[in-house]
């Protein structure tokens, strides 16, 4: 799928304005099922011109607060295997921007794993990561996870889980669950890097599972 086709799909996507849920009407249980947080999907398109800045490439697609809205978004947007190279999807909680400088991210980091090559199951793995994040199944206290990102590159796909802090005890638990969500083998190395070291090409992970 071309950059133009993906951009057009993401720019025209909307889940509507209705926010009525089963929690707001106890007599109508065929209504929408609320999530614990609002989530916003962002898309980074590949640069076409040299003068395009990061803010030109990064754009919010839509936000959702219910299970039904999530599936409407998921079914409408291109899947990771359809994205052009150098594209990214970012799904972040509330109004957090998928940037290191955002106050909610600045003291945190990310768990990440690089899938080498264009593996056919990447769409399913990305969906598993999305469901685990919005369902709070790997961050039961809702205190660590800010968002999840997939990068589409020539060398393969990378999925990263962005966190609010760098505290080793809770992050080790989150990382172990994330490794299971991604269906990684025991020999696969899931690595955690603090955002403070993001510009250091020689930085070593502070945690490895």
Entry summary:
Helices cover 24% and strands 28% of the residues.
Describe this structure in words.
The protein has 209 residues and is an alpha+beta fold. The chain has one domain (31-208): RNA Cap, Translation Initiation Factor Eif4e (2-Layer Sandwich), CATH 3.30.760.10. Helix content is 24%, strand content 28%. The protein contains five helices and eight strands; from the N terminus they run αβαβαββαββαββ. It has helices spanning 3-11, 54-57, 67-76, 122-134, 168-181, and strands at 34-44, 58-66, 87-93, 109-116, 145-153, 156-163, 191-194, 207-208. It has an eight-stranded antiparallel beta sheet. A hairpin with a 2-residue loop joins strand 5 and strand 6. The model has no long low-confidence stretch (mean pLDDT 86). This is Eukaryotic translation initiation factor 4E. GO terms for molecular function: RNA 7-methylguanosine cap binding; translation initiation factor activity. Belongs to the eukaryotic initiation factor 4E family.
Provide the descriptors you would attach to this structure in a database record.
RNA Cap, Translation Initiation Factor Eif4e, 24% helix, eight-stranded antiparallel β-sheet, globular, 209 residues, 5 helices
User: How many DSSP-defined strands?
Assistant: 8
Helical run tally = 5
* Strand proportion: 25-35%
Along the chain, the helix and strand elements come as HEHEHEEHEEHEE
Uncertain regions spanning at least 5 consecutive residues: none
- Largest beta sheet: what is the strand line-up? 2-1-3-5-6-4-7-8
Please indicate the count of domains: 1
Structural class: alpha+beta
Characterize the biggest β-sheet: 8 strands, antiparallel
Mean pLDDT score: 86
Looking at CATH, which topology would you report?
RNA Cap, Translation Initiation Factor Eif4e
Instruction: Please name the CATH architecture.
Output: 2-Layer Sandwich
In angstroms, what is the radius of gyration? 17 Å
| Overall 3D shape | globular
CATH superfamily: RNA Cap, Translation Initiation Factor Eif4e
Percent in helix: 10-25%
Just give the CATH class.
Answer: Alpha Beta
The CA-CA distance between the termini, in Å, is 35 Å
